[in-house]
Amino acid sequence: MIPEMITTAYLSIGTNGYSESAQFISTQIALSQTELRRPEFYFSIMKKVLPDLMAVASDGVESGWDGYDARPVTKGTFDRAIAFLESLPNSIHTPTVGAEPDGHITFEWYSSPHRLLSVSVSPEGDLHYAALIGHNRAYGTEMFFGEAPKEILGLIRRIDVV
What we know:
By secondary structure, the chain is α+β, with helices and mostly antiparallel strands. The protein is built from five helices and five strands, in the order ααααβββββα. It has two domains: 2-37, no CATH class; 44-159, no CATH class. The protein has a five-stranded antiparallel β-sheet. A hairpin with a 4-residue loop joins β3 and β4. α3 (45-59) runs antiparallel to α4. The relative contact order is 0.11.
C-alpha cells in the first residue's frame, strides 16, 4: 500500500518547461519513475538472497565440505554475512552467494566478464573484495562495523550498471 502511494504521488510530478534545466529535470524524473516501477525496489536484498545464503551455509557446515580440506562456514560468518546484506541499499541488484574453502561467505555481482565484484565476508568482520571494471582492478580489505563501506558500495554501483 505505501509503495503504491509513494509511486502514485511521485509519478504525478512533472514539468512543463522547455529550458535545458527543465528538460534535465524531466529526464531525471522519468529515470526515477522507471526505477520506482521495478518490483525489486521494494524488497530488501536480504529477502531475495536469504534462501541462497541459508543453502550455502547449510552445505558448508562440516569440515571438508568441498571434498578436500575446506573449513566450515561458522555461525559468526553467517551472522556477519546477514548484517552485511542488511546494510546494502535495496536499489542494487541481488548478488550470487557462495562459500569459500577458508570458511568465508562470498557475494558476487556480475555484469559481464569485465565488470564483476567479489566480496568475501570473514568471521572476524573483514570484507575482502576484488573487482574488475573494464581494464581497472580494485582490491582490498575493509572492516565491517554495521554499515557497508563506501569503497565497496562505490564498486557495487560501478558494476551494477543496467
